[in-house]
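Onboarding guide, step 5: your first structure request.
Type a short instruction followed by the sequence, for example:

Predict the 3D structure of this protein.
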Amino acid sequence: MRVFVAGGSGAVGRPVVRMLAARGHEVVATTRSATKAKLLRAAGATAVVVDGLDAAAIGEVVARAEPDAIVHQMSALGGAPDMRRFDRWFAATNALRTRGTENLLAAARASGVGRFVAQSYTGWTNAHDGSPVKTEEDALDPRPARSQRETFAAVRYLERAVLGAPLQGTILRYGNFYGPEASEALLGLVRRRRLPIIGTGAGVWSWIHVDDAAAATVAAVERGPRGVFNVVDDEPAPVSEWLPFLAEVLGAPAPRRIPRWLGYLAAGEAATRWMTEGRGASNRRARWELAWEPRWRSWREGFRSGLSDRPMAGAGSQGPHAGGGFDGAPSQPAHDPRTPNGPQRPQGAE
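The system replies with structure tokens like these:
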């Protein structure tokens, strides 16, 4: 299959390119950086330097590539995380989720591309009430934080545009990333004890290693199912559980705890709501319909051994599926009937 990967030099784009090439696909991948183009060539792709917001240029390179499928991995996050000014932090990425998506879909229509796989997100976007673990059918947050409204709108725009296009559209809602070149900012905050637990820390997060996200993307390209899929690991967990564990793995001091009211003052509405009210996601549909399962089934395993290409301090020699909880006992996933540890068939699956 000939695959066009838009945004091939990002944290997920790079392993997607590598895995596609390793499986015998012909890959054309884009980047905005001539330096990163060399890395894409080394991974087995034909590299193209192009701006995803340049509609004419995107149309030209897609037409020249004549792909069977397009993978949309374009994003543009940079600098330190800024939860208080979330929309400003995500402004460039939001442009790629809206105008960039329009450009790719227009190019797909013009070139007769029948399959389109796009990166989306699950996490703070979920409704903050009801079950702590959400499926793809559950509602998104009807009242996102003020500082996240533009970003939320961009996510919704991307999903609706892809699913409404006259092609086989697949939306992959990735959980929170960790892994090589994907979690350095987070680790820096934890090491410096600048990421406190706000309130009870009851907000539930879902994580995914970048290599597992890439493997799910390759599965979506090859199988081509239409619809929305949560791409997360098997263990959604509250902040009060995963954050102290991560600090322990890094050999960092235990995170501070601050009351909710102080969280609003210090970190803002978005961070406070996410840490206290967030909802995780079930990967059941992705496991079944993509015939995929995460190598790092739990963030516990991934934080120990998958944060970088080198073993982490305090991580020991445990690798994927080694298990082990915070106290060294075998991990016991926070089990939800909609978050199985195996590819069971979900209700309504075709």
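Each response can be followed by summary notes, for example: The radius of gyration is 19 Å.
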